[in-house]
Amino acid sequence: MTGISDDVLLVHGGTPLEGEIRVRGAKNLVPKAMVAALLGSGPSRLRNVPDIRDVRVVRGLLQLHGVTVRPGEEPGELVLDPTHVESANVADIDAHAGSSRIPILFCGPLLHRLGHAFIPGLGGCDIGGRPIDFHFDVLRQFGATIEKREGGQYLEAPQRLRGCKIRLPYPSVGSTEQVLLTAVLAEGVTELSNAAVEPEIEDLICVLQKMGAIISMDTDRTIRITGVDRLGGYNHKALPDRLEAASWASAALATGGNIYVRGAQQRSMMTFLNTYRRVGGAFEIDDEGIRFWHPGGPLNAIALETDVHPGFQTDWQQPLVVALTQAAGLSIVHETVYESRLGFTSALNQMGAHIQLYRECLGGSACRFGQRNFLHSAVVSGPTKLQGADLVIPDLRGGFSYLIAALAAEGTSRVHGIDLINRGYENFMEKLVELGAKVELPGGDLV
Ligand SMILES: CC(=O)N[C@H]1[C@@H](OP(=O)(O)OP(=O)(O)OC[C@H]2O[C@@H](n3ccc(=O)[nH]c3=O)[C@H](O)[C@@H]2O)O[C@H](CO)[C@@H](O)[C@@H]1O
Ligand SMILES: C=C(OP(=O)(O)O)C(=O)O
């Protein structure tokens, strides 16, 4: 590759990342809690909001729909006032949808508030087909009608939406949230089985309960929601970002470093912590955060399978794979949530890693992708020395993984497309510098 653009970071590898950074509210909760504010009859206060692009996209979309969004008294606090919700211009919605998947979650709240909704085409990471059929199936069950229109889908609720019995074909995070955000104001009881139970979903349920919703969660993936006539605002501190925390933990391991992640929480990271320990990473938990470090000596190869919570979260996979290139022996990674989330490994191979992809389900159990010709299993053979390279960021976590690989490598890498990382990692360049990374913008400025 030749040429440089503003969207490039030069990374001089070989320095262990050391120091402290802080994670704030979760990318996979905050934008959804913002959407929930649409359901209230009064203002909501959301605290611990990170400055990331997905938050800005949702803020813009809410404002287009007449919600007032302003900073609160404390840093990272937003006050969202939905008193005057109104229809937005379709062209404006499309222009603001950006690269986020969140617009699909406006369906239920807008149907309740306005009786109709326009949902633009979705963004999000290109890590599989990412259909939205479950979302529309459940909305139809609530009584919505859906019509394809130019640039998106137009939905209507001819009468008040009605609670229903729903079984998801797969415990999809977004579809579970769709049901929650729709059922809380629907008439009667909704029973959702095979629901996703990720910590961010539990936190969204906490938000909705604060607003006046009646929701119970059984231990068997069943969620029951009794619809109410009216919801108020909420005051909520978003749970911390366990995905960002794990990314920094993997960076500590791959670079031989030591990072204290202020805000990281044991409860939502238990599965990651067990895996980190099996690989040979060290950690220490206190009330304010978790310290992650490489204790010296060889790392261990492991077998790893991603899964829905409480399994190993798929968004943890890509950064940890970089650390696995430094482990002694053969690691097996079976990605069971997204069919195309291992493509990022070809660039790691260019840097000197040995990663072979397979169509078969390796290790663990057979998954939905086994018989369907997707390269969704990997064998990582290590340890391998990594060399700096020209890298083009493919998706959010793949992008962070390339940064980790470049930091662990000998020599200089040019990482293209770094702006994508702003979608989910607050101030990541400043954090890298704080941790001692040698990174440079093309003009020669130290970030
Ligand atoms: C903004 C956000 O919170 N994103 C997270 C959310 O994405 P998102 O909510 O999009 O992910 P889902 O849990 O819905 O997707 C899981 C699987 O279900 C499939 N599926 C989903 C919906 C549908 O209508 N039809 C269908 O087939 C998907 O293709 C995928 O194979 O959960 C994922 C799984 O933990 C995480 O990786 C993402 O970071
Ligand atoms: C896949 C991810 O996000 P999204 O669903 O927003 O694309 C992610 O956060 O890794």
From TrEMBL:
Q: What is this protein called?
A: UDP-N-acetylglucosamine 1-carboxyvinyltransferase
Q: Does the keyword Cell division apply?
A: yes
Gene of origin?
Answer: murA
The UniProt record lists the EC number as 2.5.1.7
List the PANTHER family hit by this protein, alphabetically. UDP-N-ACETYLGLUCOSAMINE 1-CARBOXYVINYLTRANSFERASE
Task: Supply the source organism for this entry.
Answer: Streptomyces vinaceus
Compartmental location: Cytoplasm
Pathway field of the UniProt record reads: Cell wall biogenesis; peptidoglycan biosynthesis
In the UniProt entry, which residues are flagged as the active site? Answer: C125
Q: Which residues form the Enolpyruvate transferase domain?
A: 12-432
